[in-house]
Amino acid sequence: MTTLVFVGAGPRATGLLERIAANLPEFPQALDIHLVDPHPPGAGRVWRHAQSPLLRMNSMAEDVTMFTDESVVCEGPIRPGPSLYEWAEQVRAGGLDDEALTEQVRALRANSFPTRQLQSRYLEWVFDTVVKQLPDTVTVTVHPTTALSVTEGPDGRQLIPLADGETLAADVVVLTLGHLDTEPSAAHRELAKYAADNNLRYIPPEYAADTDLSVIQPGEHVVMRGFGLSFIDLMVLTTEGRGGRFVEDSPGSLRYEPSGLEPVLHVGSRRGVPYHSKTNYRLLGGRPPLPRFVTPDVIDALPQGCDFRTDVWPLVAKEAAWAYYHELFNGHPERVRMDWVDFDRWFSPLPWGSPILDSLIQRAVPSPDDRIDFEALDHPLRGLSVGEDELQARLRDYIAADIARRTDDRFSADLGAFFGLLSCYGQLQRLTSLRPESQVRDLDGWWRGFFSFMASGPPDDRLRQLLALSEAGIVRFLGADMWVRAEDGVFRAGGGTSPGVVTATALVEAYQPSPSVRESGSALLRTLDGLEEMLVDGDYSVRTGLLRISPDGRMITAAGLPHPRRFALGAYSTERAVAAFARPRTNAPAFRQNDATARALLATLRLV
């Protein structure tokens, strides 16, 4: 019997374990599998039940699955299973062993945004189901502790000492780590020291659900640097989480009743606006057949040393725009002046941004409000310069308009664009030909941020809550191009949209830390810092912070070769995985990667 050790037992480990179970008949063997994680198997850290019941997913119940379907292109067998919503339908009548979760599962609808606690039960069920489906020749042991390092024994086996004193010996080890803390950077340590020296509060980037917010005092003015999902979680925990109430005075309109324990949150970012709300409607014109322009063959044919902005983004923009117009023409034909077949025939051969293409769109789509404009979407406050009070009103109008677009299927073309962007994200994971500077600045930096801004926002009711908090004076907007200074014993902040300057006694970095092997909160990962990806181009060189892996998930050694017994998957690796669950019927990249890695693991284990 050979031994396989997973370091990390969250959703990624479960997904890989499911693929091992699916492929095992082709690679028959006896396996002794160990999973190491201080958090519950299946759910892991992020989705564990032990967190605030106020925190929810930013995906609808019908859009979350842990099982492959007919859309997935992989070598292993397809083994369908229920999505989160389908699982909820199966257990609704009998309920769960928790009264609050039973109420939630019975109230759940396909377009509901479930709590993370309910998601934890789905993930635990998936893990238990996968384990039970393994043959008797496979044993599974869970170790509720932390792995400290991985070294190689004289016989080639991998030695993994655990925090509880045990050491596991593995024929193969796979790192399936999820969201990881990082050690504070020099800049963060400097701000922390400044805060301590001046009796201020400072919170570095970290996972919001685990942040100690008790240090933030009622009524304290707090600068929140970041306007994405971490901010939304922190906003909820410091308002409703402190006893405040949202009251619906009229359908869709909320009013906030404070408890008196809330701080005042001054929030800003580079764009100065929150992530776009998730849509709560479905496509009216059918799913666009994707990919159309950003295909594997196109990605693989890009020349070495290409530039993302020049060579790749025009293809991505064209793909997303094509998917947008596919929905507009097929779902709302009364708003266009051309048949879709004719529009598609003219659109397809034209390069994105060409005057002829622009002219085609203007002729076929008469209303400017129905045309997609990526530049305006990426810089929503560009050119705006107003007073502080007017900025608050402008931002409220912007957020209200976003809610309106994302909850009214007259704008379902936005969902078409989402599917176009999602398809591109999956294809761009195979892109390896960018010049290093463009890889770091454009793909890892701008593109990932733009994708999250457009496609990974909160449910619309979270933005309604944000509006209510703004009306109540508990949230204040700083605008775009936010800046922060530590000076004169306080924190000062402002932005390029308004001349106003805020003085605060607390600063919170309201964003997730970037993956970094060297600065990881995982002691095991830190021992592998020599295996980080290094990109070099002439005098330009940079460490991306990511652990190098091969296409089948093998870790790359310092000599540049695939390690025969070590594998790794996750956002901290050069897989550059999107931190989101797979949507059904989208040929999700995680399923394809899990299957390829499972097959490589099983082939390796059969030979050791």
From TrEMBL:
Coiled-coil positions: none
Top-rank lineage group of the source organism: Bacteria
InterPro entries named in the record: FAD/NAD-bd_sf (IPR036188), HpyO/CreE_NAD-binding (IPR038732), L-asp_N-monooxygenase_NS-form (IPR052189)
Domain annotation FAD-dependent urate hydroxylase HpyO/Asp monooxygenase CreE-like FAD/NAD(P)-binding: ranges: 5-179
Descriptive protein name: FAD-dependent urate hydroxylase HpyO/Asp monooxygenase CreE-like FAD/NAD(P)-binding domain-containing protein
Lineage: Bacteria, Bacillati, Actinomycetota, Actinomycetes, Pseudonocardiales
